[in-house]
What does this fold into?
Amino acid sequence: MNAVELIERKCDRAALTDDQIRWFITGVAAGTIPDYQAAAMLMAVFINGMDDDELATWTDAMLHSGEVLDLSLIEAPKADKHSTGGVGDKVSIPLAPIVAACGVAVPMMSGRGLGHTGGTLDKLESIPGFTAALDPDRFHQVLAAEGLVLAGQSDTLVPADRRLYALRDATGTVTSIPLIASSIMSKKLAEDLDALVLDVKVGSGAFMGDLERARLLAKTMVGLGAAHGLTVEAVLTDMSQPLGLEVGNANEVAESIEVLRGGGPDDLVELVSYLAARMLMAAGATGSPDEAALSVAGVIESGAALDAFRRVVAAQGGDTSVVDDPAGLPSAPEVAEVTAERDGWVTLCDARTVGVSAMRLGAGRERKEDEVDHGVGITLLAKVGDRVELGQPVAKVRYRSLERWDETAPFLAGAWQIDDEATAPGPLVIERVG
Ligand code: URA
It folds into this structure.
């Protein structure tokens, strides 16, 4: 087969055959298809989409591009959660230890920052020494010992996604329903789960700006799960403003630790608790939402969830002292403020603008080879529904390069809209699919 012919076929809107798709994805994983051809195919799929059969085969080929985990020796039910990507979305970091402390095993395979959205792996790697690159044996060992594991795609686990993910990030091909659905579901299907909860983000900071597309993405992923015998529930949640108050990497880990200590901002705590309860129910560990909520609150209050996090950090080589003292996490040296341009009520704190600003400051990658700066970040001091006075700080920013900050500052200031009339934020959990 010939990669150019397949790219041309997709450009001409013809469907690719099973064999063609499997040949292409195998070549991506093996590195025999060069970046420029893989990127061209991604753009052709981005523009022309895939039909249901193509998507099922593409996902299956990605899933089998590496080893598929066999976790049958783990006795506890196994559940995971995956987000379609948002700004300030650090939910996985407190969620996984909470659910593990409730007795459900969490074999979590996460992603890196994509576009203007942050990635769980980049955030976790701000913990000195922490490694998310685990081979299947080590993945299994950590899960068996700690009840959870926080890893990424690797040369052995879903290697096709590892490459395609990085190329999508650098080629403007992220916001494609088949590419997001296959990326997420190939990783999740490789985890040998009993239940999966998907957090499908909707709003300016999400890849799906409107409810219709978010519903379609949710249904597509639920369908891919069903075709592989996996129970999947998708929850559509608001991403019109960032989640929590911290946007970056190390600062998001610190905020996650606050949640595990029983604190943290209300919206983040609400979503973590809600998704944890859905996971416990989906895994059959609790019968009712009330019972699940009690278990979640119980493991936070007793310290069991924080302890589970400390243990998994240690098992993955991380410095556990930062769990007790997040001041030990990296922090960029320079600090600036964004101030309110008038008196009034915050009616918008635009997630996309904040996410793009954080990325430009170095919290994400503009090019595939860029290194993430774990210490830069934005702390939101005013969100929708807050009253502010002219000149009052609405954000504190940690940065390293004055040049980058000078370029970003006016753009970031545009994230806040301040009006005479107050509006309350919309619901965080919008609806469930599946
Ligand atoms: N998370 C993933 O793993 N892949 C995507 O494409 C988006 C979010």
